[in-house]
Amino acid sequence: MSDRPDLRGLLQDELESWVAELGEMRYRGRQLARWVHGRGARDFQAMTDLPADLRRRLAETSRLTTLRVVRSTTSADGSTTKFLLACPEGSTVESVWMRYADGRRSACVSTQVGCAMACTFCATGLAGLGRNLTAGEITDQVHAMQHETGERVTHVVFMGMGEPLANLEATLRAVRLLNAPYGLGVGMRRITVSTVGLVPQILRLAELRVGFTLAVSLHAPDDELRQSLVPIAARYPLDELLRACTRYAQRTGRRVTFEYVLLEGVNDEVHHARRLGKLLRGLRAHVNLIPWNPVPGLPYRRPQPDRVRRFAAALREAGLPTTVRVERGVDILAACGQLREAHTPGRTPRRVPASLAAAR
Ligand code: SAH
């Protein structure tokens, strides 16, 4: 079974070669690519313009990764639907569908089952790494959500479970498939890949001159504080990380986004903002502040809106373009890894207190 190729992970030219091996004309591969990556077909039977015989032989010789919806929850305001999706072999990942008033539809996808990075405030990090997802498992999260919602994606963010740059080949392949004209055609400028800050991989992306938005999780203005929140930071000091980001910006012409999760009393004081301003001065940077989404059992607090405003104002004063992430889905456990955790057998699902959900 597993030595059969997963068509969901193959680029159009690879699909053409595959059908050629089956003795078919190459244009059948292009038809196949539109079914698999454009329409996100759930099975071979749906591919009605392929001869029945070819469909049967494809089903016998190949696989088509199709994720199953285990559970979905929609926030009270209807803006966010969170999905728990099962891979064919049973492991589950989380994906989120976000709706914006201007019509945008953003898919947040996972790149790994679990995560090895163990950031201290993140729910996904608690359980450790299961395995890497394949490109087909990454892209099918978007197809599965389109299928379920009946809506069409406009943006994709690689900000779900896992560290995308620790699964670089599959991530790059998934980006190409989502961007391809025979796929969903999501523009490179509408694709964001978020990383904990793996320097060698960022440098590789710079050399490849990929055009997506790179978002780097900074979370602190100095090495000591950063290492206390993001263990892997011990391997890549801030000066090295920022040099790699500068290189990425130079080579791609794209401004790098820095993410900064705000933890009350830990990294959200005005002096942190001022230091961050100094640190990023001269970089073509943009800062996205994320007030911490509470994870039950973790010893942090989400700052009140006035503290968030104060921090953002100090950054802007330092000349940094700054946005605050609009909180979505706090009432549906939309923070990384929370839905999966609540759904794991043997664990007591822990509800987000109504007071927090209401505080949005
Ligand atoms: N591994 C990638 C993607 C992680 S998820 C990375 O580290 O960037 C995307 C962002 O959400 C990261 O900045 C991550 O640090 C942040 N995040 C994780 N848990 C969070 C929580 N409970 N509340 C707010 N942001 C969180």
Number of strands: 12
Order of helices and strands: HHHEEEEEHEHEHEHEHHEHEHEHH
Helix content: 25-40%
Our estimate of the beta-strand percent is 15-25%
pLDDT averaged over residues: 92
Question: What secondary-structure arrangement, pairings included, does this model have?
Answer:
Elements: H1 12-21, H2 27-38, H3 52-61, E1 68-74, E2 80-86, E3 92-99, E4 105-108, E5 112-114, H4 123-127, E6 129-132, H5 135-149, E7 155-158, H6 168-179, E8 191-195, H7 199-208, E9 213-217, H8 223-229, H9 238-252, E10 256-262, H10 270-280, E11 285-291, H11 305-317, E12 322-324, H12 338-343, H13 354-358
Parallel strand pairs: 4-7, 7-8, 8-9, 9-10, 10-11, 11-12
Antiparallel strand pairs: 1-2, 2-3, 3-4, 5-6
Bound molecules: S-adenosyl-L-homocysteine.
The site of S-adenosyl-L-homocysteine has 19 residues, from β8 and β10.
